[in-house]
């Protein structure tokens, strides 16, 4: 959890470098851990003045393109998440010289006791063994080899540019003078940094690719919901992804050549700041901490590599229409901007001054913030209010309908009773197919025709159902769609409620149907195939029995001597340490789902 002084420093940074609506929200310790964002008053998305909670210009987000060594990334063809990880590490090494210092300093990757918050792939062998046969194991998340490869590539990069900028501590590996234990400690810290970065990163556009968006990452996750029930999200992240890949502008004169970009990158203020990191004295290095030279914590566009430096382009007209990105459209936000700007002008006329006292957002509107008010939405990243909240409520974002296995991998936490959880039966299904040589033609049919077509039918039927209801019926209206695996081998599963997915049951039905019926199905004309496939969802006792057999085989593979879901529930409730809660929470969820599946399938026999 971030300390109080770090939280205050972060809030100060946000009010200086973004539109952070302090009238409507505040930072406080969250009951789920760490820092959360809380409503200071009742919030209603129908009120335009309450829609925009955060606006931060893209020039102020932390990305590989905005970092102090953007030119080195370009020269070495490094981008994406790898570029973002390195950008964070190098900016962190700058300390207070980084324009993102207060934001970076608030990102914690250690527990209160000083231990590292490591990704699950870096856990001890003992802890990882407890997760054998779980979804985390099935998805190969326990394997750290990919992360080790990224570390090796990062160390190689750091050594290659060491003459230009000093190697950060996390990448300072020496195979000759350092011990294996010291080098392993470097890797472990690097892994913790990676977990911290990937858990906060947002997809931005084709120029920045992926970035840290100060303020946006403070909104904790809740499972998505259509009606904003208990625990559902309140806000959405909005960012226009369309722009030039060379300069980040919406409209510019760049062609397929990189010549303009190369020239501009050579003079981006990097040389001065790199000398500071390397320990070389240079009176020309300006203080970008914002304490003396500027009110908003940013020096100038030249130091950060502005849009003008990276390639000039035509600015969008203020009234240009933009494509909507979410339910809260950019057109909606543009109207809100115009209203906010008009409010500022009206107040200036009333007071005859530039607002010397605090305004409705609890801070003075400096020229820099007025500029942010006037910026086109396509130049910014926004957090907008999507669902209402009461005063004192924690405001949640949603990272999507993700099972706990992926939440652990990407963000390091799980959700109790996660409706998106499932238990894979892929191993059991493939084992069955391997033993049953007579079903090979059926597998080929499923692979080439049945699986994709039936999935599309199920989705179309669900959309039709949702359009005909108001979301209040009991048949699943408004719920998230089941995850759709492109490869049918990965799809067989038991859902969190204990029922097999539709395609899992249909596959079982296909496997057990009489040969004559399968031959007729395989010869069905394309126009009649959807109706024929729909019959695979009809009740068939043998199909239920086959799925039940797969469930029992899966349950028996956990190396825990038959600990039940109820027993794991008790262990989960007793666990205090985060790693133990993840382990017991994952096993609790899977065991309960399989036990519910056995009960459900048995009732169908």
UniProtKB/TrEMBL annotation:
Question: What's a single GO MF annotation on this record?
Answer: protein-lysine N-methyltransferase activity
Which domain of life does this protein belong to?
A: Eukaryota
What spans are recorded as compositionally biased (Acidic residues)? Answer: 279-324, 344-362
User: This protein is called what?
Assistant: SET domain-containing protein
Origin species, per record, is Babjeviella inositovora NRRL Y-12698
Q: Which GO terms describe its cellular component?
A: nucleus
**Which residues does the annotated region (Disordered) include?**
273-325, 343-362
